[in-house]
Amino acid sequence: MALIDDVKNVLNKLASHGWEELFEAHGLDISANDLKQECLKLLIVDRNFPGFEDYSIEGNQGIVPGSPARSLIYHALASPNVKWSDKGASNKLTKYPTLEQLEIVENFVFGIEPKSISFLESKFPIGKFPNRIFGIVVFASQYRSAIDTPHKKHADLVYSRTGVSRVGTAQMKYVGESRSFTPVFKGNSKKIRVLPARYSVYLSVRLQGSSELLGTRFNKGDQWFQGIPSDPNLSFWFPIHKLFEGDECLDGMNLKIELNSFHSNEKISRIHKFIASDFSIDPGSRPDEHTSFPYTYSNDIASLDSSKSLVVPTPSEQIVKKANDNNPITLNKNFTLRTETPGGDSLDSFSSSLEIRSGSPPFMPITGGGNPRKAPEYMHIRTQKLRTGRLVDLNSKSSMIDTINNDSYKAVHYIDFTGDGIVNVNITSDRPINLINVPAYSLVAAPDFFPFVEQSEILDSTASHSGIWNRDPLTLADTRILPNVQSHPDLIYQGMGVFDTCTALISGTLDDNLQPTSFKDRIERRVTYLPDGAAGVFAPGWDTSFDMISVQNMSVPHLASYGLGSPFPEDAKLCAALSSFWPAVAPDISRSFWPARVETILPLLDSEIGAHGAVNSWDGEKGPTKIQRGNREVIRYKRFEYVDYTLNASNGMFDYEILSGIDADEYMERILKFKAIKDSQRINRLLLTSYTQVNRMDKDVQTIEVRDGVIMLEKIHKFIFANPGRTLQVQGNLQMIDVEINNERTLIIDGKDSIFEL
User: Fold this and answer.
1) At a CB cut-off of 8 Å and minimum separation 6, what does 128 contact?
2) What is the structure's pLDDT at 223?
3) Which of 307, 309, 300, 308 lies closest to 263 in space, CA to CA?
4) How far is the CA of 310 from the CAs of 199, 307, 446, 562, in angstroms?
5) Burial of residue 178 (number of CB atoms within 10 Å: 0-12, 13-18, 19+)
6) Which residues make beta-bridge pairs with 312?
7) Helix %, strand %, coil % for the chain, to 5?
8) pLDDT computed for residue 369 by the predictor
9) What is the per-residue pLDDT for 228?
10) What is the pLDDT of residue 440?
11) CA angle 535, 295, 559 (to 5 degrees)
12) Where do the H-state alpha helices sit in 422-462?
């Protein structure tokens, strides 16, 4: 069937669900007999129509050959803000395009007037682009609202040579209205859906870095690594023309396209190799075992759904589980902490996790104390395997810390289903294509506990607010280092420079003279799988970490998932304890356990951390609770070292829905309200003991309104602080501790940032 007929079928299926009226509002008849000519005719576009405020000013046709952003039909079907069939936004669309239907229309944009490879290459003359290189490149891509594009001028396809999918316990689910996937599993908050990433193949050109390519992210390399060139001195691939199967993609050619993927997880293997080679300690395994499951594995991580061009993580009943259920493998913990080599490698404990650190290399200055991760920096070491095979949870022992630091025992390994790898393409044609093939880098990352908050949104929102973060929340898209070429040498391709730009975000429209649209802020609730939704600071990281490799006689950093926690909840606990050190993915549990920290940045509600009688919590733990002890009130905390996110994850205790309701606006509102309180009041040494969001019916709010003769503007945030006093043991419960509280202060801030004290 011809592509135009496929497009007719798509539009016919949608027409009666409000789409016919929507297109008619812009002068487009999607039931026209000659649909191709109807798509190419000039239109008078109503950019005040809901969802079209950020449609490209340069766009004035149903289909503009080769330009999705300027094609009104594609924008309407792909934009998450197009939801209404009428200008008054009173009639909602009742059906949305599927992924397969969007793919058909996207292909039609590039295939409506097929061009030859030589013609497409001629658009980049060597006189203007002297260092150009052409290739067949695999990209992850997503159509986005204007504010989420690099150029921020109109809605556009955004590209990266890295995609970030996420693990889960349930099958993926596509939500047509948001044109994206959701991790939320309605009806069972203890389940989380896998999040896939979409990939496509493009005829591409490699160009020097410029503001046209990178927009607002131009020249913003991650300064975690010193010595990496700035963007004008780096090369970036720009997609020219999408390649798809059949004879309508390129003039005079019939293409067959096959995408395939490979991923691996090497965490346990890396731990055993590192301890054996760098410390000359027997880890309890043989070298020949390190290439097989569960030391290294590729199954059950992700697969490629060719019908949808998706890398889809494999759902697992347990998001974390013992490495070999019936006879779990172990690490011989036959060393005393702290053990250190002359080169700076060390085996130590951080709280109750095993901390594995490699020395800082002399050849690549790294700021912020970051070292390369030859192995996972943190490992779960709190499950002991006895000679009889029986497993002992060390969290039940009062001697747990002494055991971890000093004793020899077999520590059970746990596995997760994260990893990294490649997405590559095999293209065959009736005529040869003499161009290099450039694969994409694929991350299969840990869950994002704030799935509807993007790292880039927080970076943009906090640009005008100093002193919030210990380190700017740079995204993975701002990082300029190699992919994991050590584990996946196929990522090394002809013409690769020493430094790579595989995680960069690339604008879909290469034109510095674009007219900006009068768009409003984002209103969609959607998830991204591009790297600006991932963390770009590696200590050791959240979505990926880094290691070093020798390339072209230079030692350079590269991304590496094997540097993260084994399994990932070992990182999640420590990241969250550091006041949401990785914004937009890590919660802030700085006040949840003892010793509590005073550096809270993102306050979580009592109801979200299970505090003060709340039944549920996001992490399966019971938060701080005020109780009466004798003749005075105390707050009962769980000791931080006994908080075990690995076992919580393994036992299905995480609640993935509790924090999923927080969007970027709510996220930033909490941060800024709390910062306003801290900046205006003398609470620097006080503990935050309670945080709630209340209305004017709250008794404390009513007391203040009567006392001060004011009316508070909702939304109202109530914070309670206290001076910590003595710590008291809890008889019969070694995991808990009571903390006396003194001089409680209740501070309330309302919707107009007025601050009141009870």
Assistant:
1) none
2) 55
3) 300
4) 6, 8, 18, 23
5) middle
6) 303
7) 20, 30, 50
8) 43
9) 82
10) 97
11) 25
12) 455-461
Strands (E), 619-671: 625-629, 632-639
What the block records as the tokens of 712 is 């508070």
561 phi/psi in degrees, rounded to 5: -65, -25
CA distance 507 to 53: 19
- Give the full edge-to-edge strand order of the sheet including 339-340: 339-340, 346-350, 353-357, 378-379
How many residues are recorded in the chain? 758
CA-CA-CA-CA torsion sign (116, 120, 121, 127) = positive
pTM: 0.95
Q: Which residue in 569, 655, 540 sits closest to 608, CA to CA? A: 655
691 has which bridge partners? 719
Query: Which two tokens mark 243?
Result: 């390649």
Distance CA 490, CA 21 (A): 49
Structure-token pair, residue 329: 């493998």
How confident is the model at residue 365, as a pLDDT? Answer: 47
- Please calculate the CA angle 141-143-149 and round it to the nearest 5 degrees: 90
Distance CA 68, CA 217 (A): 22
In b/e form, how buried is each residue of 85-108, taking b as 16+ CB within 10 angstroms?
Answer: beeeeeeebeebbebebbbbbbbb
DSSP secondary structure code for residue 215 in this structure: G
For residues 374 and 359, is the Cβ–Cβ distance under 8 A?
A: no
Quickly count: other Cβ atoms within 10 Å of residue 440's Cβ.
27
Model pLDDT, residue 274: 96
The C-alpha atoms of residue 476 and residue 443 are separated, in whole angstroms, by: 11
Going by C-alpha positions, the residue among 72, 274, 207 that lies closest to residue 510 is 207
DSSP string, 483-506: --TTT-GGG--TT--SS--TT--E
3-state SS assignment for residue 109 = helix
Cβ atoms of 171 and 194 within 8 Å: the answer is yes
Measured CA to CA, the distance from residue 748 to residue 376 in angstroms comes to 43
Amino acid identity, residue 732?
A: G
Here the tokens at position 343 are 């080169």
> Which residues on adjacent β-strands are paired with residue 557?
548
Q: What number of other Cβ atoms are within 10 A of residue 31's Cβ?
A: 13
- Taking 70 as the pLDDT cut, the residues of the chain under it are 220-224, 360-370, 463-464, 466, 470-472, 494-498, 520-524, 581
pLDDT of residue 367: 45
Q: Kindly state the DSSP code that residue 195 receives in the 8-state scheme.
A: B
Of 512, 529, 557, nearest to 139 by C-alpha is 529
Contact yes or no for 318/652 (Cβ under 8 A): yes
The CA distances from residue 644 to 113, 391, 572, 641, in Å, are 58, 16, 10, 8
pLDDT at 610: 97
Gyration radius of the chain over CA positions? 27
Q: Which residue stretches of 617-731 are H helix? A: 645-650, 664-680, 699-708
Q: How far apart are CA 550 and CA 234, in angstroms?
A: 19
Query: In angstroms, how far is the first alpha carbon of the chain from the final one?
Result: 72
By the 8 A CB rule, do 57 and 515 touch? yes
68 in Cβ contact with 508 (< 8 Å)? yes
In the numeric block, the tokens 């304890």 are attached to 577
Closest CA to 720 of 617, 563, 606: 606
